[in-house]
Amino acid sequence: MPPPSPAERLLLRLFGPGGVAQRRPSAWLPVWQVLSVAEPSSWPQELRARGLFDEAAFAERFLAVPDLSPPKPPRGWRVAAPASRILPARALLALGRALPPILWHRGALPSQESHWLAVVGSRRLSDEEAQMAEAAGAAAARLGMAVVSGGAEGADSLALGTCVSSGGLALSLLPGGGQGARPLWGEATINPAAPAFSVEGAHRRNRWVYGSACAALVIASRFSAGGTWSGVIAARRLRLCPIFVYMAGEPSSGNDALARIGLPTVSSQAELEGRLFAVLESLSRGAA
Predict the structure, then answer these.
(1) H-type helices in the chain, by residue range?
(2) Which end of the chain is more exposed for a tag (fewer CB within 10 A), N or C?
C-alpha cells in the first residue's frame, strides 16, 4: 500500500486518535468527498460551504504547515485513511457514514475485489458448532472468498484460522485495540492503543463485519442476549447482507429463534457451499 497522500494525511489528522473531529466520526464522508475531489487550495472553502467549519479551520492550518505529521502507529501497524481503502466497495454502499473513517491494520489483508463471508458466533461452542465454524472457513477458501469476523475465541477464531490454513485470506475487525501476538490472519481496528474491548465498540464493529460481507453465517447465539444476538438482529433489520443460521443436532437458543423468524438455515458444509454459490451467482449476474 502506498504512503498516505496529503488528503489521506489530513483525514487522519482530523479523525484519527486525538483528532479534532474525532467526536463527530460520521462527518468523515462529506469531508472525504471534498478532499478526494477538490484541489487542496480550495479545501477550506469547500468544507465551509458544507457547514464543516472546524474541519475547514484545521485544513487551513494543515495547508499552512504541511509537515503536520499524523500520529505514529504502534509497531507493526499501518493506517488506511479512509477505511474504505481496505474494505470491499459494498461496505461503503451498505454503511455510508457508519463506516469508520480510519482503520489501522496489520497482517495480510483480503482483496477488496474478493467476496467476503462473515462468520459470527459464541465463544463457547458444542463440538458440532466448532466443526461447522471450521467448515465455514474451509468453504470460504474453497470458493475463493475471504472470511471476516470479530476475532474472538470460539466461532470467530476457528473460521478465520481454518480459512487461512486452507489457503484463503481472512480479516478480524476488532472492537478495540490489538493486544498480544499477531494472529495468522489480518487484523484492523480504529485505534490499536485502545482497550481491547468495549460494548459500544463491539456493537459498532458488528455492523462493519456484516456490512463488509456478501453473506453471513451465525454458528451459535443466545436468545435475546449477547453480542452475537444483537449483531444479527441489527444486521437483519438493516438488511446488510443475506444471513444463514447453523441448525443441526441441538441448535443454540438464539439460532433456534432466528430460524423460527425466517432466516434460512444450513446444517453442513455442503449445504453452506450451495447457499454461498447461489449468492455468488446472483452477484455475478448483477455485475454483468
Answers:
(1) 6-15, 28-35, 43-49, 53-64, 89-95, 127-142, 155-165, 199-212, 226-238, 253-260, 269-287
(2) C
pLDDT one-digit tens code per residue, 69-91: 656 667 888 889 899 999 999 99
Non-local CB neighbours of 200 within 8 Å, separated by 6+ positions: none
Question: Which residue matches cell numbers 479512509?
Answer: 82
**CA-atom Rg of the chain in angstroms:** 20
* Cα–Cα distance for residue pair 207/204, rounded to 1 Å: 5
Please state the pTM of the whole predicted model: 0.93
* Alpha-carbon separation of residue 45 from 34, 41, 55, 81, 107 (angstroms): 10, 8, 11, 22, 39
d(CA 112, CA 103): 14
pLDDT reported for residue 108:
94
The strand pair at 116-120 and 146-149 is best described as: parallel
Query: Rounded to an integer, what distance in angstroms lies between the CA atom of residue 204 and that of residue 224?
Result: 18
* Residue range 242-275, pLDDT digits in tens: 999 999 989 999 999 999 999 999 999 999 999 9
Residues 31/21, Cβ–Cβ less than 8 Å? yes
What residue type is 41 in one-letter code? Answer: S
